[in-house]
Amino acid sequence: MSNEQTAIKATYFSIVGNISLALIKGLAGFFGNSYALIADAIESTTDIFASFLVLFGIKYSNRPADKNHPYGHGRAEPLITFLVVGFLITSATIIAYESINNIGTSHDLPKSWTLYVLGAIIIWKEYSFRVVMKRSIETNSSSLKADAWHHRSDAITSVAAFIGISIALILGKGYESADDWAALFASGFILFNSYLIFRPALGEIMDEHVYDDLIEKIREVSQQVEGIIDTEKCFIRKAGMKYHVDLHAIVNANITVKEGHELAHKLKDTLTEKLPELGHVLIHVEPGENH
């Protein structure tokens, strides 16, 4: 299965899960008198749209290169990640606003059975986070990583709701707002996670140097190629699920231009074969001294 197919399958998993949970949370929150659960349902609803955006981004970013996009369409993925972060910030703002309004309003205590619903949700969302995060690592997908963190933030907001409802039920009358405070805390956590998702996507757009481990692999593979003495500069930029590489390779200064050209092609082919996550590889041949 290709990286694109793996990522798309993981996104469909997220979409189906978010639709189901949004309905379950919304109904449980309404009938169980829990605004924390309703807040959770609001986040899951935004997650549905966010997952559809991720799906679109993955499909679009994996379009092949064309005349106007010689490096492909991979940069669409971090742009989609920015939109996903926008959904998270919007949902956090709505939850915070409603929570503050409800804190000063008297309302009934949440129903005790809502804790069972939340317990099941927490387990499922943490499992979903681990599944989607694993797929994001396998495919080098930043938008899929953002989708995974949606699941983790959802699990945390559910934990906050669980704690808030438990406090309200244990302490009884006068502590109904514990549920709302839990929702307010959850909104703050969602905002914090939004930053954690936004930061690496911004680095990807800005070609930030954060790929030391991959550079080390590239150097190791390069020195296995006969005729390559060493490597110098190595620049990497990520676009979608691929890493584009500019590499300076040192060769014998006395070989012909044709031989240097052939060595560059041999090195490029070896790198793309042994490191399939690489996209465009540009080799610049440097003459070695005293070889």
Automatic annotation (TrEMBL):
Pfam family, one: Cation_efflux
Chief location category: membrane
Recorded superkingdom: Bacteria
Family annotation (InterPro entries): Cation_efflux, Cation_efflux_CTD, Cation_efflux_CTD_sf, Cation_efflux_TM, Cation_efflux_TMD_sf, CDF_Transporter
Keywords: Membrane, Transmembrane, Transmembrane helix, Transport
GO molecular function annotation: monoatomic cation transmembrane transporter activity
GO cellular component, one term: membrane
Name the record gives this protein: Cation diffusion facilitator family transporter
Organism: Flavobacterium urumqiense
